Amino acid sequence: MTDAYYDLVDPADPRGQRFAASEHVISTWGSSMQNAAPVSALLVRAIEH
Questions:
Q1: For residue range 22-45, what is the model confidence (pLDDT) as tens digits?
Q2: Which ranges constitute the DSSP H helices of 1-49?
Q3: Among 4, 23, 37, 48, which has the highest number of CB atoms less than 10 A from its own CB?
Q4: How far apart are CA 48 and CA 42, in angstroms?
Q5: Phi, psi angle pair for 46, to nearest 5°
Q6: Burial (0-12, 13-18, 19+ Cβ within 10 Å), 4
Q7: What gap in Å lies between CA 2 and CA 35, rounded to an integer?
Q8: Coil, helix or strand for 1?
């Protein structure tokens, strides 16, 4: 997937819990901040697993 918000850091990790943010999560408020929606999606993923 080329347009992902986050990339899995270590695909071989069976837990798959470490992600690196891409440029797609940058907030409109500032380039050093992340938009809350993609972060919320990671939280939901963690809860479901």
A1: 989 998 898 899 888 888 988 898
A2: 36-48
A3: 4
A4: 10
A5: -65, -40
A6: middle
A7: 19
A8: coil
